Amino acid sequence: MPRPKTSLEPNKINFRESFASLKFVPRFFKEIRKVNPLLFYVNVLCRILNAILPVLMLWVGKLIIDEVVLQMAADVKDLDLLWILVAAEFGLAVLSDLLSRGISLSDALLGDQYSIDTSVKIIKKTSELNLDQLEDSEFYDKLERARQQTTGRVGLMSNILTQGEDVIVILSLLVGVVTFEPWLIILLVVSIIPTIINEIKFSGTSYSLARSWTQERRELDYLRYAGASDVTAKEVKLFGLSDYLAARFKDLSDKYYIQSKKLAKQRAGWGSFFNVIGTTAYYGAYVFIIFRTVAGIFSLGDLTFLSGSFNRLRTKLQGFFTRFTAITESALYLQDYFEFLDMKYSEAVSEEKLPLPRKIQKGFEFKNVGFKYPKSEKWVVRHINFELKAGEKLAFVGENGAGKTTLIKLLLRFYEPSEGEILLDGIPVKEYNQTQYQQYFGVIFQDFVKFELTLRENIAMGEISQIENQPRINRAAEKSLADEVISEMPGGYDQQLGKRFKQGKDLSGGQWQKIAIARAYMKDAEVLILDEPTSALDARAETEAFNRFIKLTEGKTAVIISHRFSTVRIADRIMVLKDGAVLEIGTHEELMQNDKLYAELFNLQAAGYQ
Ligand SMILES: Nc1ncnc2c1ncn2[C@@H]1O[C@H](COP(=O)(O)OP(=O)(O)OP(=O)(O)O)[C@@H](O)[C@H]1O
Q1: SS in 3 state form for 523-587?
Q2: Does the pLDDT at position 10 exceed 50?
Q3: Is the whole-model pTM more than 0.90?
Q4: What is the CATH number of the domain that holds 234?
């Protein structure tokens, strides 16, 4: 099997690009503040208070040492001031601890609330987008990057706030040091330059690596899923695929590992080298301070204050620059997240649209409709002309890939036709608001979703606003024969479905289908579409389901796709598709007389049943 091409070398993102990503930070903070304003301001206040404590503590420490030296030399000891100073330092230490805890707590709470908020936003945004966007692999990459960084964004928040806090710490320490000895600033600059160079050198690289690997990471996730999940387990075991999938996974992971190891080694190597330079500068300053103290220019207290301040300044400044890189890197992910949230859906929402008719009068008409899937040159359907009359039951038949489901997607406006148009009561459907228009339809696709939620939720999903309306859910279940499934479940309507969760029960294919059909009945839709809804039902259940369907949807418009001709013949009219074109359309009798593909396939199936 051909392996996907892997972009081994990341496109390096430079310092300027990283810097530009910071423009998203204000929007980011606006979002965080909106999530919980009180907590946000408490956090900021704690950080401001916490920021001025280090210089205060160092200063009180200096006063204590000077006082101790003074009292050691004094003949009559007066320790009152000393105790006051010690008490003050103790108070500051306790306050510092309390503030730090307050910051961590509010960080964690804000972070949790914010990540819930972003996840909700991502889910909502995904539902707003059109199917062509959802089926696009670029979209998936964007979604993946937006989703993946939920926890990263929480780290970003506390990093930026800590950065602000550290600016205050640095400024206050600088004031202290400059007051004593302005020359020390030069050494400070020397000690910090190596860190800056190091950060510029590697800024953006790890983001670039991660970004250029989005596709592959998705593939890794998929391979992990394919190799180790209940859904694939049967075939993986039976075909002995485990080693193959594991090897493919390892192969791809190893490539990423090699890249990331190279980067980590470079970072560590250069980091240690630059750090030695920084440490040398610090000890230079230390020696300088010691000389001045020995010469009697500085007191012992000054020595501790200055060396302490200098050391803290250096680590804070280093932290500032390292964190700056981390911030710009995470801010690049922020860009992905906001770009995702800002993705436009194809239909301009603000556009003035016609109100939808409450009841369909004439029906739908496909006029010379042709369609190519996005990024594809192939006409999947072309020159399609037919009517779906109000109240009619129309069946689509045709071989696999003939274009049946595609026509449904066009009718539902998941895609717009590439040529021709679809009319509703003589008016192009494009004139109506897409979301409102889609409310007309109750649909069960062949790949309908098996929600691993409760049975009640699975049915109510058809009209979720009616989840509390038990009589309506009961009626839907009766119509679809799902009531038989419910009566067998120990938990009744509250039965958890699927294997993922504790006490969850998995259903057979046919049972799932009955639940899915109930979902379509749940919605009092004008048009019902059943895309091979009964393929998993046994022959008796299928006939029963269809007879019921016809009876229950009397007066309603419906489209049915089925490969079983015994089912299809119940429809008012049948449309036969071949290679994306309408081959014939008419009642069962008409098509039998026509003696073309329909008659041939019908007789073939009928012979099979004899
Ligand atoms: N999202 C897509 N992007 C590109 N091509 C697609 C997409 N979905 C379907 N196709 C192609 O369009 C053609 C028609 O597919 P469609 O699903 O409409 O067939 P169908 O008649 O419903 O088939 P079946 O009976 O197997 O369900 C096929 O060749 C398929 O490969």
Answers
A1: CCCCEEEEECCCCCCCHHHHHHHHHHHHHHCCCCEEEEECCCHHHHCCCCEEEEEECCEEEEEEC
A2: no
A3: no
A4: 1.20.1560.10
